[in-house]
Amino acid sequence: MKITKVLSFVALAMALPSMVQAQDLMAREAKADFLLKSSNVTKIINQAKANEEITYAKNIYGNHWNNDGVNVYKGMAKPEELVINLKDFSMPIKSRIVTSKYGYRPRFRRVHYGLDINGCTGDTIYAAFAGKVRVRKYDAKGFGYYIVLRHDNGLETVYGHLSKQLVNVNQEVKSGQPIGLCGNTGHSFGSHLHFETRVLGEAIDPALMFDIAAADMKADTYTYRSSGSHKATAAVAEPVLAQTKPAAAPAAATAAQPVQETAAAPQPKAEKHSAKSSHSTKAKAQSKVHKVQKGETLYSIARKHNTTVAEICKRNRIKENSTLRQGQSLTVK
């Protein structure tokens, strides 16, 4: 009897490792199965969100797909309200220096419909969001070589004065994908990127959505309203920012824009952009002189004084390819 109990105990002891291994295997399989199911659920949810955004944009633009120019939506009804998801944002250029803001320019008597961001010819330009290339054109009197992307969040973004276009019409692009190279083409006074954000052709100040200096979005979403009242909002917060209209803008600045913005269009005039910032009367009265140091260039001097090469050349009546002498005095502001 004792021998039988001993044998049974020995058999049980020998079987225990196998039982433990089997339980561990079952537990691992159960965990793997759970993770797989969780992953599939996450993929389904993400895909559903992506499909929802695509449907969102299609509901706004319908089947209207025109490769002719920036604003080709004359007569189309705008949504009363559109919540734009900004989480996919990528900086369109590595530079964080804005040389000209959105708004009315008294000097040129026209509205500047975007931001001019400093850059050198050849710097890479990136897609701000995932989307599709709607326009790839050249406009000698305005944007130069430029690209327009339509995004699933409802926005369209414009990239002007490029030296080279790296994508083709109807091509799908990802957020942060290179689409062109910075340049000085078209009506421009120095290498820079002209960057616009639009909904159905209506320009919106990019600074309401993005903090270029911080290379980030200002909130998770941005609420567009066709009445002209726009706001940026955090994901779980109340509206935190209201749009302000460009100061002293004439009535023509807020009127409906033409189908194609060219020099021939009566109002507003062609999108002729400059990398120079507008200076107030007070600023003009205060001049600032820089003495050229060894190894300095017009570009490095412009960066140091937060101005442009074109502005320095104009103030000193020199050309961009002029040779600088050590100790030479240049008026920079």
Structure write-up:
This protein has helices at 2-61, 281-285, 298-304, 309-316; strands at 81-85, 98-100, 103-105, 110-112, 115-118, 124-126, 131-139, 144-151, 156-162, 164-165, 172-173, 178-181, 192-199, 202-204, 210-211, 216-217, 221-225, 231-233, 239-242, 289-291, 329-331. Strand 15 (210-211) and strand 16 form a beta hairpin. It is built from 4 helices and 21 strands. The protein folds into 3 domains: 24-63; 81-254, Glucose Permease (Domain IIA) (Distorted Sandwich); 281-331, LysM domain (Membrane-bound Lytic Murein Transglycosylase D, Chain A, Roll). By secondary structure, it is α+β, with helices and mostly antiparallel strands.
Please describe the topology of this protein.
Blueprint: H1 2-61, E1 81-85, E2 98-100, E3 103-105, E4 110-112, E5 115-118, E6 124-126, E7 131-139, E8 144-151, E9 156-162, E10 164-165, E11 172-173, E12 178-181, E13 192-199, E14 202-204, E15 210-211, E16 216-217, E17 221-225, E18 231-233, E19 239-242, H2 281-285, E20 289-291, H3 298-304, H4 309-316, E21 329-331
Antiparallel strand pairs: 1-17, 2-5, 3-4, 5-13, 6-12, 7-8, 7-11, 8-9, 9-13, 10-12, 13-14, 15-16, 17-18, 18-19, 20-21
